Amino acid sequence: MVSRAHTLLKTRHTNPEFWRSGLQLFRTCAQVALPPGPAEQIAGYVATAQEHLDAQEAQDSNERSAEDVAMSRDPDDILDSILSGNPLIAGALSTQVRHLAAFIRPKLSARPKHKRFEA
Question: Which of 31, 62, 75, 109 has its CA at 20 to 30 Å from residue 24's CA atom?
Fold first, then answer.
């Protein structure tokens, strides 16, 4: 039955909640006195579940980090990059977007600056 749960997790489920439940099941089974063969198999299931959860956590952390970086940039800095002809950004933008940025920039400059709170 535990082997079937492991197979189902590997083939059908990516949700971390399923994997956490599976890890709890595998750890509980690992505490039961088993012969060496099944005990090694259960230890492999624990390792697989832990690796999956660690990889998911790393991916979530990277996504949050990239989002935090994107959200922390000041709109004026972004517009400066666009208008200065930064080849990485300008290459992907159409002429219409550059004109829109030129139109928006004076309006952003006129708005009051908000203090940023550092964590």
Answer: 62
The domain containing residue 77 runs over which residues? 73-110
Distance CA 113, CA 105 (A): 14
Lowest mean pLDDT among 51-55, 60-64, 104-108: 104-108
pLDDT tens digits for 27-54? 998 888 778 888 889 899 999 999 999 9
* 57 shares a domain with 77: no
Pick from 109, 6, 94, 90: nearest CA to 52? 6
Residues 48 and 66 in one domain: yes
Give residue 51's pLDDT: 92
Is 102 contained in some domain?
A: yes
What does the alpha-carbon distance between residue 25 and residue 2 come to, in Å, rounded to a whole number?
8
The count of structural domains within the chain is: 2
60 plus 105 within the same structural domain: no
User: At residue 3, what is the residue type?
Assistant: S
